[in-house]
Amino acid sequence: MKPTILLCRCGFWAVAFALLFAGCSPPGDAPGVGGARPLVVTTTTMVTDLVRGIAGDTVTVKPLMGPGVDPHQFRPGQPEIQALQKADAVFCNGLHLEGKLSEVLKLMEKQARKVYAVAAGLPPDLILKSDNEPDPHVWGDAALWAEGAKYIGEMLAAAFPEKAGEFRGRAAAIEKELRETHQRLKTAAESIPAERRVLITSHDAFRYFGRAYGFEVVGVQGITTVSEASLAEMARIAGIIRDRGVKAIFVESSVPRATIERLSKDTGVKIGGELFSDALSAPGTPAGTVSGMLEANMKMITEALK
Ligand SMILES: [Zn+2]
């Protein structure tokens, strides 16, 4: 490890990480440093849901982000850096969803640590782009996320081959469940007329959802929550609400409500509720899994836009 080289190439968090790592030997040399079971670190709540479901109790899963946490804005603190130091494998979403953390994960990959992005296992031609940047919100399409489940099963099998059969078995069950969810979501979407399927939310997190279930999607902020909406953009969206007779717009659980509340006030359109976009609800609650989250969102959307 040579932190001086990294100083030139990476941002503050990667540098902090590199310095913390100086002199440490990678845990790949000593599997299972998390205790008797290997330690697997996960980033977003959606990735955690998949990894927990597929890994079962054969590994210790340590999530970095909890319910309500915006992955675009997430910055690793010392406890998260320490978890990454100790990890036997790391699972993330990829496609730059994990904002500041992406730099740290890239650095770990360069050190030949086991870092797996769900997005790497998805068919490249199904990845949406916005201003030439890949759109990271892939879990919005349950059938696409099912491909991610299959990939995570394979990567867990590669990382911990002694349990490969178990991982593949559970991954196949989750894949099947997600494909069934996909069919239910399609049926639910068809319960409202196509012309009313206009989904206006805080940021562009629903383009995969829109493509899969036939909604025209408008995000007030772009595909990240880092930039704010311009006045011109707010006026354009207010125009869509009036011209299309949109019955409701939606706030998101991991994004501040201000822009949507402003649009609601300016146009008189009601707020249809709070959607889960970039984070699940707490584990054990109905929207605590990706399937549950998508079904809860669809229920709220179809009821408000009917
Ligand atoms: Zn997002």
In words, what does this structure look like?
This protein has 306 residues and is an alpha/beta fold. The protein has two domains: 167 residues, Nitrogenase molybdenum iron protein domain (Rossmann fold); 120 residues, Rossmann fold (3-Layer(aba) Sandwich), CATH 3.40.50.1980. The chain has eleven helices and ten strands. Strands 2-1-3-4 form a four-stranded parallel sheet, sandwiched between helices. The structure holds zinc ion.
What layout of secondary structure does this protein have?
Layout: H1 3-9, H2 12-21, E1 39-42, H3 45-55, E2 60-63, H4 78-86, E3 89-92, H5 101-110, E4 115-117, E5 129-130, E6 133-134, H6 142-159, H7 164-189, E7 198-203, H8 207-213, E8 216-221, H9 231-244, E9 248-252, H10 258-267, E10 270-275, H11 290-305
Parallel strand pairs: 1-2, 1-3, 3-4, 7-8, 9-10
Antiparallel strand pairs: 5-6
Bound molecules: zinc ion.
What distinguishing features does this structure have?
4-stranded parallel beta sheet, two-stranded antiparallel ribbon, alpha/beta, Rossmann fold, 2 domains, 11 helices, binds zinc ion, 10 strands
